[in-house]
Structure formats: C-alpha cells, structure tokens
Write a structure and sequence with these properties.
Creatine Kinase, Chain A, domain 2, 2 domains, alpha+beta, homodimer, two-stranded antiparallel sheet, 350 residues, 8-stranded antiparallel sheet
Chain lengths: 350, 350
C-alpha cells in the first residue's frame, strides 16, 4: 500500500525552516440538540445525519470522504490521530462519531467529539491568513446548511467554556532545536505563555515534545475576534522564529562541530539501524531536519523528513505495510522503511 | 608522524576471534641491592647501570631501545602505558626508572618499578607456550649477566609477597561481548575467579572493563612451576573461549537482528562522528569487532580495529598528531582519525 501524506507536509509554506504547519479549528454545536455530555444516542445519530446531508448538499463528498464508526477501527483511528486529523479525545471516545477529511488532508471535520462538530484547516508553514480565509469560507458554507448554537452576548456556544466565543483554536507546529540546544527554550516559551498562549507537545495537550517539536496555540477564544486572536499569535510566533533563527546562527558560528557531530550521527543511525523506536526516530529526524536547514546535509529533503515523521508512527507503519504488527516487529519495519527512504532505495511497498 | 603498533596487535595469533593477546611477565630483583622500597637513589642508579650493561653485553640494544627518565615524559609514559608496555605503577612512580622495549613491542622490561626489573613478552592471540619459551630464553640470557635474588625454599624474591616464587604473572586479554550480551558473563567470570584466577579491566588491577575486554591472569606465583601455573590458566581460558563462542552462536541464531542493529549502529557512528570520547570509541570498536567476527561486516579487518583501540587513546593520539591537545581537541581528532581509517581514506599524517 502506498501512503499519501497530507499536503500540509509538503514543506511548501512560508517560514518552513522553523514552522511545519499552521492549523485553525472551529468548534460548533447544532442548535436544539443537547451538548455531547447530555446527548442521547439518538441525538448523536441526528448530528451525524444532519452533517452528512450538509456535506452532500455542499458537494463536499466529491473532494473528500466521510468515515463513520465502522471505518474508524482502533488502528485506523490511531492512524488518523498520528496524521493530526483527529484529536486524542476523538480517538478515545465512545460516542457514535464520524470524520470528514478532504482528499489532500488539509481540511477535516470531527463529528461528535467534545462538540457536535469541530473542523480544521491545516496548511504548510506559517499561514494564518490563508488558513483563516479557508476555514471561514468552509464555515460559511456549513452555516448555509446547519443552524449553530450561538448567543449574541457570548458568540458560539461550546461544551467547554474555554472554547465559547469564537470556538477557535489556532496553532502552529514549530521546530525549535536551536533554542533547545542553546538552552534558551524555557525562557522563550515562558515569554510565550506569559502573553496568554499555550505551548504543548506534538499532539496537543498532555503529549510529549519529541524531536524538539512544539505546538503553540491561543488559549483565549472569547471577547476578541478571530482576526485579533490570530494577530497576537502570529506576532508571537514570528518573534519565536526570529529567536530560533538567531540560535541556529549562533550554533553555526560557535559550536558548528558539535552540531555536525549530532547531525551526522543522527543521519548515520537512521541509515543504519535495524531496530528503531518511534521516539528515537522523532528525535533523530528532528536533528536531521536541523542539519538539512543548516546545510550540513544535502541529499535529504525536508519533505522526506516530514513524511518519515508521519509514516513511521505505529499505526501509519502498520497501514503502510498493510499488516498488524507487535511493537518489536514495528521497530524492525520502521528501521527498514527509514533506511530505504533515506538511501533512496526503491520503496519497499508500492 | 606515523605510528607503528605492536606486532602483538596484528591479529595473527591462535584463537584470535576471542583472545587478543597473551602476556607473561617475570619479576626479578638484583642480589645485594635493597628492594625498591628501601633503595636509595644510588641503589636505583646501580640497578639502571647494571641492567644497561647487561643489555649491551647481550646485544639487545640493536633490536630494541632503552628509554631513560629524560625520554619518559608524562605524555610519553602515558603513551607506553596505553600500549601495555609499562604498568600504571611505573607511570605514576617517582623512582629513577627506565624501560627497555624491543622493536616490535613484544618484549619489554621495566627497570625500577615495584621490583628492580620486570620483563614481559606479549604475543598475538592465545599463545602461552610460545610466550613462555620466549621469556624463559630472555630470562636465561639476563641470568648470564645479572645475579637475581633467589631463595632455594621460596624461589625468586620479590618486593610484594604475592609475586614470590616464580615471579610470574601470565594473562590474556580476552574479548567477551557474547557473554556480556547473553548476560552469562558474571557466572562465567565467577567460575574463573573460583579456580584462583583474577579478572581485571583492560589495563590491569583497578581499571575498568571497556568494550567488553577483560584481562584474565594467575594470582598464584608460589608453590607451583611456571608450566603448572600456565596449564591451569590455559585450560580455564580455553573453557571461557568455548563459552564465548557458544554465546555468539546463540546470538547469531536467536537475536541476529538485535546484534546487527548494534553492530551497524556502532559502525555508522564510528564512521560519522565528528567528536568522540575514548570510552565511546572502545565500546563501539568492541561491538564492531564482534560484527566482523560474526561476518556482519566485511570491509573492516580486525587488525585495523586493534590498531584503532591503541592509537585513539589520549596519549597515543597526541603523539600520532605530534601535538599536545586538550580533551575536546582530542575528541575531535580521534573522530577524524577513526573516520579516515574506517573509510580507508589516506592517512591524515604520514
């Protein structure tokens, strides 16, 4: 099986030396149907049906697919989670839920997660303006089909008060190896948190930071417009980008050999290991990414690294090889997949 | 500067898949001169002179050289220690001492160490018989020139009671990665210790075991002949060799992939690192050695690995590059030297 990766991983976006991707999601609930916490199974089915009809009416099933509970096996849901298309909550949920995802995996919508619907757009690099335009356009389309719970005072109503108002969460996935290696990371992230933003691991709240990848997002969704919230976030992210670039410059000028050592070792291990865990993979790919950007490595491109970050994850790996595997088998296949990709050998499967 | 390595490192000896080298040393003291602990400086000079004359008379200065205190700088003594030509005691001593070493570094003699003289022969692989013949021959020559302190009851008299009798210590340098990886090492070494043998690190008493190299030697020097002592040792070592080979066979049959992973990672790091410590080097070379023997790696030969084990040591490295270096400079030059050797690039210096 050949796996396509999301278009947002093609490394085409702005500031992609530091920012992998930009994501905006809106949380919405349908008027006259109880929030999920009180929703009966019949209510959940109503939501699924109403959303299904809306997607059909809007012709969106031609450019994407709606995955329902029977598509969403444990393994496949994990696969979607690893691809940033569903949330950990969605993956662990017992609700009757569904996922809409468009063909290039840059627009998706969870149905019956914490809110009735949550949709996101995800773009390569730092692109809040483009992402906001796209999600607002999608939002307008949906609003032509569905009635959302809305209060003139508060804005959109959501299951959790932290989402009330715009129902928006905007975030970037940002790679900060320079700040980690210069040990400035804590100071910089403290600054980010102080202006009211949140910093998290790769897969959101409560997940670990691996390979020096971080997620920076807004906390506030109430009392300001989408544009205002995004302006604050965009400004902060641009500042962090400058700090990261300066840190890399410092490293290149002052401890180049140490960085080369890390980079060449990471590359060598990725090209040689016969067994490798997911965690090691992320850490070495993170260092390799830095090495490519710092022009220490020429023959690997960032798109390949982005792709490997996703397809080496446990569920993606199993779906790629089209077989269920125990952790030790996965560590073996993962090593083989990475080796083949980095050594530009023929792709093992398709 | 081009560094020759001792002939005993050429990997030509028997059982060299497990045993790196065999060493026998005799401790002797000159009659009518106090032991070192009571020797005046004049006594020490007498010893040096008598030994010097003996070497000249025996024509041994044509096939070797006598290094005196002014040759034996701190750095050069460390270099000799790393090459197993002097003991840690000799290196740390304040006595007026000297070292005789023959051209291929397989026969050497410390003058004014713990005893007046201690000489050793060192051979590739497991070769107690050949080594004993050679040292006895040398001993006979010396005895034709020098009077040794000897008691009809006890045998040769030495500064420390543990050496009285034969004055002999025989040992092998043995590589036991198989037993370490199968976790049988402690059991096997306990058995070795129980029959009265000693197990030590690479550089003798109190030194650490690195890269899974061990030194096995006799403890007893009194009450048995040299041949009897060596028979016990030889038998025990041959037993350990069998255990080690079985362990390697087991690894090759049952966890081949795990071993390949370790081997290929070690090779990759040695060929890629830009900075590497002495300790890491020994550990990775030890694994690489196993990989060569288990036929996982074809393009590296054991002689190169043996050579790297020695010339990457701190003092050897500095003498190889003909410059004093701080630890961080050494880590850099070491990485570069290893890379060049393993990639078969032209040797950086000479």
């Amino acid at each position: 099986m050949k796996l396509k990766i999301g278009k947002w991983l093609d490394n085409s976006g702005p500031e992609n030396d530091v920012v992998l991707s930009t994501r905006i999601r809106f949380a919405r609930n349908l008027k006259n149907i109880p929030f999920e916490i009180k929703a009966s199974q019949a209510d959940q089915i109503s939501v699924l049906e109403m959303v299904g009809y809306a997607l059909e009416d809007l012709d969106l099933l031609k450019t994407g697919k709606l995955l329902n509970s029977q598509d969403l096996t444990l393994l496949y849901t994990q696969y979607l989670l690893e691809r940033h298309l569903v949330s950990p909550d969605f993956a662990g949920s017992k609700l009757r839920h569904a996922l809409y995802v468009d063909d290039d995996e840059t627009l998706s919508m969870m149905v019956n997660e914490e809110d009735h619907i949550r949709y996101q757009v995800i773009a390569s690099g730092l692109d809040f303006a483009g992402s906001l335009n796209r999600i607002v356009e999608f939002d307008d389309k949906l609003e032509s089909e569905l009635d959302f719970a809305y209060s003139a005072d508060l804005g959109f109503l959501t299951a959790c008060p932290t989402n009330v108002g715009t129902g928006m969460r905007a975030s970037v996935l940002i790679h900060l190896p320079g700040l980690v290696l210069t040990k400035e990371i804590e100071k910089v992230l403290r600054g980010v948190i102080q202006i009211g933003l949140a910093v998290r691991g790769l897969y959101g709240e409560g997940t670990e930071t691996k390979g020096n990848f971080f997620q920076v997002s807004n906390q506030q969704s109430l009392g300001r417009s989408e544009t205002e919230i995004i302006e604050i976030l965009d400004k902060a992210v641009r500042q962090v980008i400058q700090y990261e670039r300066k840190a890399r410059e410092y490293l290149g000028q002052n401890v180049k050999l140490e960085i080369e050592d890390k980079v060449y070792r990471a590359e060598a291990i990725l090209k040689s290991a016969r067994i490798i865990t997911s965690e090691e993979t992320m850490n070495f790919l993170g260092i390799l990414r830095l090495g490519v950007i710092m022009a220490m490595i020429a023959e690997v491109d960032l798109k390949t690294i982005n792709e490997l970050m996703i397809i080496t994850k446990p569920a993606n790996l199993q779906i790629f090889y089209n077989q269920e595997m125990e952790p030790n088998e996965r560590d073996e296949k993962r090593a083989s997949l990475i080796r083949n990709r980095l050594l530009n050998r023929e792709k093992p499967n398709g």
